[in-house]
């Protein structure tokens, strides 16, 4: 039987479960207490002390994010003494913070900035020596600027406790303390997977994606360059948040219109690339099940997951599908089939992918992601970068009319849409694989077993008289559990989907950043995922192999899934990589 305690917060009686913190109790009572280092269920350490309160009968202040509520406790959250102490704490943090808000990528969405405004900070009360650090921008995906770090440790907790990578930690002591990596090397050279979850956790601009905005504008301004853009499914259900729309709003039509106004020659849908991935991946899975490959087969659409596997499980890479991810496949199609069909010099085509993921920047730069000297994808920009470009172009996004993706290749299935959420790749692949193995059209196509927020989901399907065991894995901590099981020879599965980011691409490291309070009170993943499932439900075509664009592509260019031409353009290989690439000396 659950126990409860009753306490008084700001003269309001509150009854909460025993073990509830003062911060959570105050929230339940509708009382706001400011926080900075706090990240619900991830970083609850009380380091920054912004959440201090007074408790009657006790000396000093209590840190509300870690102090448990007790029976009869009387709490005051905004006495003059509490407010003054918080102001001093904030001043001390700001005294060692590189203040360049007007030019910072997080301006307007910075938790430190919001607190400074809330407490009416107009000058630095404690000016003095500031720590100075070299900006780490060696990685193709992520920039680390410790000069803007406030030592909240939210990034460390996310990397270590959520993803179980531990690529970053606090080093040195006292004034020299900083968040860094093994031997203070670049994130590019350690066990970082570029998943970007640390960026989503960071309350300031200390971590952000490597921008490619200027590169894309340069190409758009060049009259001799034919610029083609494609957008991932997760982008359309998150982009609107950058323009104050409700979380999960599907802004596909406005997004397409904005891209056309910005000057892209063609605007395509990565969902079509997802359908192509399913055609190849389902075929590869069927071949393996029928005895022509290693099982379990694991999806390879998530580049953060692939980098993790290459660095930690090099001996198990044969389990990964050889299929490129959807945007890489589509990029290869644009520079081959599309260029040939419409008489465009492929060397004059620039392909741009709008992705929810910063690891896609790394992926498109990989040496093997090209065919006959032509890069599949030239640039990747995140959902956040696209929103900044739209604002740069002075486009009133909310007032835009809806538009459709360009043809040819403008048609995609609902299966392609659900790629953006955990379980979506598996569900899309199974829809096609089951039809193929059963040699008939199966009407029941919604596989609820692989939907939802659980980190590991599993199901057993009876297909053409054969039991097929499948699993869906979300987050690298869970991926590690699955890989250890395979390594020990104990895996019962035939097919496994792995996504690096908890929740899948809808929660990718390039998506709109939500502050700690929003993350604690709203299920962002579910709202975005539900929007993708709604797209699928409303689609006329809900299976990749039923998309007429797929038939056209194979009839006119690839011949059939798994063909020589398909392998040339749509498949790749992965390589074991050293966990650390430390510079000598």
* Low confidence ranges: none
Total number of domains: 3
- Determine the mean pLDDT: 95
CATH class designation of the largest domain: Alpha Beta
What name does the CATH topology of the largest domain carry?
Answer: Rossmann fold
Strand order of the largest sheet: 2-1-5-3-4
Major beta sheet, specifics?
5 strands, mixed
Distance between the termini: 60 Å
What's the β-strand tally?
19
Residues in β-strands, percent: 5-15%
- Which bin fits the share of residues in helices? 25-40%
Oligomer: single chain
Number of helices: 20
CATH architecture tag of the largest domain: 3-Layer(aba) Sandwich
Structural class, by secondary structure, is: alpha/beta
Protein topology:
Elements: E1 4-9, E2 12-17, H1 22-28, E3 52-55, E4 62-63, E5 74-76, H2 80-95, H3 111-118, E6 142-144, H4 154-162, E7 169-171, E8 178-180, H5 197-201, E9 207-209, H6 213-221, E10 226-231, H7 233-236, H8 252-262, E11 266-269, H9 270-292, E12 297-298, H10 303-312, H11 326-341, E13 349-355, H12 359-365, E14 370-371, E15 374-375, E16 379-382, H13 383-392, H14 414-417, H15 424-438, E17 456-463, E18 466-474, H16 476-487, E19 495-499, H17 516-521, H18 524-538, H19 548-558, H20 564-570
Parallel strand pairs: 1-5, 10-11, 10-13, 12-19, 13-16, 18-19
Antiparallel strand pairs: 1-2, 3-4, 3-5, 6-9, 7-8, 14-15, 17-18
